[in-house]
Amino acid sequence: MKEKVTKLSRKLADRLKKEFDIDVEPIIHRTYAGHWQLSAGTWKWFMNYKNSSQTIGSGNTAKEVVNAKKISKTEQVYHSSPEINVEY
Predict the structure, then answer these.
(1) Cα(30)–Cα(37) distance, integer angstroms
(2) pLDDT tens, 42-67?
(3) 34 φ, ψ to 5°?
(4) What burial class does residue 86 get, using C-beta atoms within 10 Å of its C-beta: 0-12 exposed, 13-18 middle, 19+ buried?
């Protein structure tokens, strides 16, 4: 299946750029994680940085991240990728 840019993926990429100055490819990759994986903190989606092999993702849905009043980013530790979190 060919991945495509959607309205949601564009909004998410724009928000990451605006709030964290992160340039990502505007394509959302779903992880298809199961119940036990999600309860252990696995991401529901991720995006690739432009011109890099690094990724960024979240355990929150992309829609939750786009619509949240406030989001935060965990800092990169060793070789793990940063994560976006919705602040409630």
Answers:
(1) 13
(2) 889 999 999 888 999 999 999 999 99
(3) -85, 180
(4) middle
Beta bridge partners of 48: 55
Q: How far apart are CA 56 and CA 65, in angstroms?
A: 13
For the chain, where are the E strands, in sequence order?
29-30, 45-48, 55-58, 71-73, 84-86
Residues 15, 32 contacting (CB under 8 angstroms): no
Tokens of 61: 């849905």
Which among 55, 76, 58 has a CA at the least distance from the CA of 67?
A: 58
For 8-80, list the strands marked E by DSSP: 29-30, 45-48, 55-58, 71-73
